[in-house]
Amino acid sequence: MAVTVLLVEDETSVREAVRFHLERSGYVVRACATALEGWESLAGADVVVLDWMLPDEAGIAWLRRLRDSSFAGLPVLMLTARASEMDRVEGLDAGADDYLTKPFSAAELAARVRALLRRSSGERPRGALKVGLLELNLDAGFAAFNSSELHLTRREFDLLAFLAAHPGRVYSRQELLDKVWGVDFIGGERTVDQHITQLRAHLGDEPSEPTYLETVRGKGYRMRADP
Amino acid sequence: MAVTVLLVEDETSVREAVRFHLERSGYVVRACATALEGWESLAGADVVVLDWMLPDEAGIAWLRRLRDSSFAGLPVLMLTARASEMDRVEGLDAGADDYLTKPFSAAELAARVRALLRRSSGERPRGALKVGLLELNLDAGFAAFNSSELHLTRREFDLLAFLAAHPGRVYSRQELLDKVWGVDFIGGERTVDQHITQLRAHLGDEPSEPTYLETVRGKGYRMRADP
DNA sequence: TCTCCCATGACAAAACCATGACGTTTGGCG
DNA sequence: CGCCAAACGTCATGGTTTTGTCATGGGAGA
Q: Which of A96, A130, A188, B86 is most enclosed, with most CB atoms within 10 A?
């Protein structure tokens, strides 16, 4: 559960200062003094804090190599003493996710690391769904039916999105609770029914003649594959 | 900050491949499948990668329109399947800054984008936005509603501009803090609410019946696409 | 120093959601 | 054919979460 930060910094004073601040912010810090040492410590790291000014241009080379390795997706925060535009382009070009110019404050460092983790672990694009006249844009959180916007609540949207993502497949109420509500939800299965009713109202679906949300008696619900 | 590439490409496979390579090179990629969607995503982009072969000659028309708009200075890299001299002349004539013929290598793509950015760095026009009665000039920091000037504070302007640059899309409070306040902002998410309230007062928007700034309960806020 | 801006806590208001109750449908079985 | 029980649909409701807004004090810039 603990988040591990891999720190690659040759200068001892900076390294220890950064380590101190990051540990104080609750991270597990693995500090390395050389590029080689850092490379061998990659496994298990969640985010990398890398000194741009390692000897022999090692910083940029290290980063390029990282982006061609199996750790390519790892977020990298670069530390640099130079703040010119040239360096920025070069650094981003090499694949850094963010930048921090020395000197920096402890709070800023922690905030940037936190932001990187948010970006990497948080939201990746999920794309869009289309079933018949129903359109769902999962990234934008937008739902439309027959080209006019649907105003859905969060539960409604999540439930509809889940069912629409797997058309034709039947899900039991318990499965839906696990997947949409979350496994730690404590409550009755009939809650699902209520939200299905609401969704049907939005879609103009009749329970007896459903075009989209079909009841499978004794099993659960499913989104029809043929709208 | 991060360099944003606007990608307009209708073919999903190509779009995702290009997105992957560009993101791997450290760019923020805003991918659009249609000319219209791309047009609405122009604000804030630093460089455009445009598919020449969009349906209905949309590519060339889009580019010509761009060159007549407030985004005229934006560097544009065109992708094309045809390499004939005719196309090249036509494309450069329409205002493309550079050319790339499919299939192309990831390295070549990144290199060309980089070159374009270098060429245009120094002068970076960001253009103007218009949503309904609301007009924003990002260069001048000028805002107008119903043709009369709005006196917005810096935060208000930045927040409004960001939301207006991506109409229809929902942003969580955390995303807004990251993008508008900056990733190193340390503070509560409710701060966003306060500024939304202020903006609504400026725009005469009611929270219950918003014309512009819409609350998406449990998710965040968004600028309505249809003002 | 003096504004103006901005973040934040507190409280009120609104929306949402789970749930129980009750009516309706379905399918099995005598 | 009719009865019964289980499963499902839907309404109303109270508690809970989320959001709107006011007021306040700190702080940056003029």
A: A96
pLDDT in the model for residue B196: 96
Angle B167-B168-B172 from CA coordinates, rounded to 5°: 95
DSSP A61-82: HHHHHHHTSTTTT--EEEEES-
Question: Length of chain A, please?
Answer: 227
Same domain, A99 and A151: no
Instruction: Inform me whether the pLDDT recorded for A35 exceeds 60.
Output: yes
- C-alpha closest to that of B165 among B134, B195, B197: B134
Residue B87 has pLDDT above 80, yes or no: no
Q: B183: domain range?
A: 128-223
Distance A210 CA to D3 C1' (A): 29
Q: What's this model's pTM, rounded to 2 decimal places?
A: 0.66
Q: What is the DSSP letter of A2?
A: P
Helix (H, G, I), strand (E, B) or coil at B4: strand
What is the DSSP pairing of strand A47-51 with strand A76-80?
Answer: parallel
Q: From CA B121, how far away is CA A163, in angstroms rounded?
A: 47
Of B110, B118, B170, the CB nearest to A141: B170
| Number of domains within chain B | 2
